[in-house]
Structure formats: C-alpha cells, structure tokens
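#lab-general

N.A. 3:47 PM
ok so I finally got the sequence cleaned up, no stray characters, all 505 residues accounted for. can someone with queue access submit it? mine expired

B.Y. 3:52 PM
send it over

N.A. 3:53 PM
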Amino acid sequence: MGGTRRYEGVVAALSLQADGEAPLFRQIYSQLRNAILLGQLFAGSRLPSSRTLARHLGVARNTVLDAYDQLKAEGYLEGHVGSGTVVARDLPDDCRPLPVPAASFDNVDGPRDGSACFTPFAEAACAGPQDLNPLAGRAFEIDLPAEDAFPYATWCRLTAHVFRRRPREVLSIGDPAGYEPLRHAIASHLGPTRGIACTANEVLITSGSQHAVDLLVRSLLRPGEAVLIEDPGERGVRANLVAAGMTPVPIPVDGEGLRVDVLKAKGTGARMVYVTPSNQYPLGGTMSMPRRLALVRWANYTGGWIIEDDCDSEFRHVDLPLVSLKGLDDRGSVIYVGTFSRSLLRSLRVGYVVAARPLIDALVQVRSIVDRHPPPIEQALIAEFMERGHFAAHIRRMRRLYHDRQRYLIDVAKMHLENLIELRSNGTGMHLVGWLPPHLNDVEVAACAARYGLVVRPLSHFYHDGIGPRPALLVGYSGVTTGQVRTGISVLASVLREQSLSKPH
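B.Y. 4:20 PM
back already:
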C-alpha cells in the first residue's frame, strides 16, 4: 500500500504539454525518470498499468508503453508477469543521486567571477614532450574505448534522424558556447551522476579536455606563472602548460591522491592546480574525501583555481564514486572538465567545461576569437544520443565490459607473466599499471615491445623529471579483445624474458 500511495502522488504531479517540443512519450519518460533519480519513486515502487496511466493522462496507451519501454531498456523499471511494472530493485549506479556533503570553509572572501584574472594570450612555441600517436587496434594501447562494442547501428540511425529533422541547424554557424541541447544534456547528466548542480549556461563545449585546459590556462594566468600538477601526471597537460609559457610545478601523489600538504609547502603564490581525483592519471586510485575537502579549502583560502579533470569517472567498477570536487565547491573555485573521447569514441573531439556563469561568459568570448565555434554536427549527435537514454545505457554496458576485460587480463597475465610483471587491479579506469623487476628499464622494454607490435607506455615518461621510483608499464585493456589479450600477453612474456636475459640482476 505504501508503494501505491507513493506512486499516486507522483502520477498526480505528471503534467504534459500537447504543444511542447518534446514528444508526449518523452515527457512521461523524463518526469518518471526524474522522480526515480530524486528518490520520489524508490526501488520496488509499483507503477500504474499502461492503460490506467494513459486514461489518467488522456493519451493513447502506446504513448505510455513507449515511455515504459524506454525506462526498462535503461534499467529504471522492471516488468513482471502478473505483478505489473515496478521501479528496478537493483538500480544501476548512475541512477542513484550522489549526496553532496556539507562543507564549511573559512577565510573566503576573494572574487570568484574571474573578472580580474584575464590576460592576453602569450606567444609561445611548444617546448614540452609530445604524446605518441595513437595506434588503434594494437594491444595494449591506453585510453582506447571498446570500439568493437560501440552501438554503430544506433549512431547511424541518429545521424539520419538529425540530418532529416534539423539539417539547417547542424550545418549552419554554431554557438561559441556550444550546441545548446548538448549543454542541457550535460547539465542534466552531471546532477545525478557527479553531484554537480549546474545549468546549460554554466557549460562550455570544447574540442576535448586538453583544449579545455589550454583555454583555461591561457585565459586565467599570465605567462610565467606556476601551475601545480600531479607527479606522475598527464603528459599532454604538461606540454600545454609549457606551450602557454607557464611553469609546471610537480606535486607528488600517494594512495589518497595529490599530497595537499606538499602542495601547501611548494605552492606559495600559485593560483592554479590541475588534478584527476576520480582516477589519478596514470597510477589509478581515487582521491580521499579528506584530501578533496583540504584541496577545496586551499583554493578558497588562497583565491586559487582547481581544474578538475574527471578522468574515467564513468568507469568505476566497484562501489559508488565519491562526489566530484565541483560538487563540494560552493565558491566557484573548481572548474570541471570532461570529455566524450574516452566514454564514446576517441575520434569524437568533444569535451566541456563547467564553471560559474561569469567565467563561462568570458571563456565564450575568448573561444569565439580562437576558433569561432565547435562543429555542430558531432554535438547534435551526442545530444541526441544522451537525450534518448543511449549514453547512460552505453556507459553501464562499458562499465561491465571493462570490469570483465580487466579481470581477464589479470587472469591471463598470472598464467604467463609470473615473476615478470606485477599487474595490480584498479577499481576505475581503462588501464592497469604493470610493475617491472627493479633491474629492468621501462623505456627500453616499451621500445622492444613496439618492435613486436605491442603498445605499452613506460610509466617513467609520466614523471616530471622522466624518472620514476620503480620501472613500470601502462597496459590498456578497455579497447582490447580477449583474442588480442592472449596474443599480446604471449608476446609481452617473450619481450620481458629477452630483456631480463640482457639485463642481469
């Protein structure tokens, strides 16, 4: 009876607009989905039959069936013969709203709208290290989505739909801020999944996450300023900083993430820090909640900026993710950066920035000078993919697939690489760190593996000085099939034995 009373209140609140832009079934779907995400409909709550709800709303029964079918396909509802339709008892992780812990910060009076922080672009040439070119289809490339599991048929249908319904919209000059429906879809996605309350006006579309970081650094800092970065950390970001004339300052990481105590000691005068708290890149691991709060408190106290690259947060295989730094921030200190290159296809150079409205407005002006606007076509396709629920469903499938592929890689490695490399599991992400015996050189091992057609990255390349405390390789598993794993592990075993023989203990 309690479940029935619960849904009666929700159903009574349903409101449809016959002349609205969204189809009626989509309006029903969206309102029921929001009720589940907000906890107004809890797991196990029984919904009215399609006939009953259609009669209540004054619509055709097929309209309600279409909405129910979409919710079932995405894992929100379950249908049982003889017992009707209920809210799924085992809701997927991204269907559960993240609580945002209350945080209190002192000494916070600095301006957060960025009005006094913008400077002209610095003239510079790239003096930093460059990433290797991606080699798709070769084991064990990192950051490679499972292209063999991408829903190409659905993507093609949506492409035809977009060009049929909105050809002028996607082929005309775009908005410098990005395609508005995509910005709405991103804002709607980040609320329940990352604990970020934002609107479309607080989202800026970029050409990937590195473009976002480059745009932020050049817009907010003066040439020569220090930027605090993780060590080891993302090589592309380090190169961006050097190209923009900034001074990267390495801060070590440990099992809890960035060492905030070291940051406070070395970061005197620095106004920006770049972090990957959801899945530290490249070591893996999640920044603890005390570290998150301490980092946000540091930014608020000093008036600094935190660039939060939410690297691989979608692909957490165990437990629920911690709330994002942006979700903890109530002062505008955190600038959130995301990308679709890892969650969908690497060829999709579409990313986004989430920040306070005054900062976004200023970045839009800068963006319009640099490259006018992002291409509308890819944005429209991603927006359609998200609005129809395909993105959430795809992320859930990839989360399970990557978990299975990681376990398979570890199992095969245990059989063939014992005493040659130590692969440690990670609860998030798309690659593992494989620790080598101390007498080996990870750069030489990677170069030897490349001659045999393998792509493994030396961990030492990700350290600021190019020297790590222990040799290791980054081994990608997300875009590698089981056949490639078996063959790749066999080849890697031969390479490691060859290197061990040439490098006596």
